[in-house]
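Hi W., the magnesium ion complex you wanted:
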Amino acid sequence: EAKHRGRNAYCLFKDGMGDLMRRRRELEADLDIALEKGQFELHFQPRLQISDARIASYEALIRWNHPDKGLINPADFIPVAEGSGQILGIGKWVLDEALTVAARHLGEARISVNVSPLQFRENGFADAVEEAIDRSGLPPSRLELEITENLLIEDDARALSILRKLKAKGIRIALDDFGVGYSSLGYLSRFPFDAIKIDRSFVVGIHTNANALAIVETVARLGHALGMEVVAEGIEREEELRIMIDKGCDEIQGFLVGRPKPIGALERSVPPPVGAILASLDGATRTT
Ligand code: C2E
Ligand code: MG
Ligand code: MG
Ligand code: MG
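Structure:
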């Protein structure tokens, strides 16, 4: 009986793996068509600047409008596209689309674009970004590229030279998802970031978590000491907003300020509850 069970377990496992690989191949095939058929779209999420209570920038977030499966979130296809190399084509589309929309619709606000490790390391990436900027007519200082730490660990010297090249063109660089993955404080001093984005995992439940509070406070102080802006990601609650401001975060991103939306549905102003909190800070604890 045990033997029987064992064999069934093995068969299940085998079928499970086959399933997974088949689904992955299907997804890759669908992804090939997606670019051709224009099934991708960008949503934009506002980032609130505390010092002047304005929306200083928007992050471009990709969505896949799948013909059968509906709207698919990036977590469900970006990793596959990264593995297959399809992220290179997708990444080029994202950059062009984000720059075009920013130049036409976002006024003085900046646009933030996520860049995947493979894309960043592709030969000629910095020049391709410059060409895309030129095509759009957007000033380079209004583009920010968001990269993650795992992109830095493989080849420090090469990553640093690409970052320097982008910075020399006037493009801003933000370190995304700070605090998860292979975080090393060393990266902060070695790489020329304009902004650090503190990951949402340090924000959730911060009003009841002394450890998370200490981390945010320390990261904010360190970031400022290194001349970087500090952004808090994933703010959903008013008490989280108050704490992040109190701990010195310069910018706030999260559902409380605005959800990612298509450009036509985007709200350009600060929602009233957030405005009220900012107003209550004036002349009180608000620094700069
Ligand atoms: P990310 O760059 O860290 O983007 C922030 C994610 O947090 C977004 O998820 C956003 O919708 C979500 N978020 C923002 N505020 C809140 C909040 O208050 N609460 C909660 N629960 N979530 C919030 P999204 O759009 O699903 O994107 C997930 C990840 O996919 C992104 O994380 C980024 O790593 C990747 N991604 C998205 N678009 C692109 C793209 O165009 N290119 C590449 N390479 N990666 C992308
Ligand atoms: Mg991001
Ligand atoms: Mg992030
Ligand atoms: Mg992320």
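The radius of gyration is 21 Å.

W.
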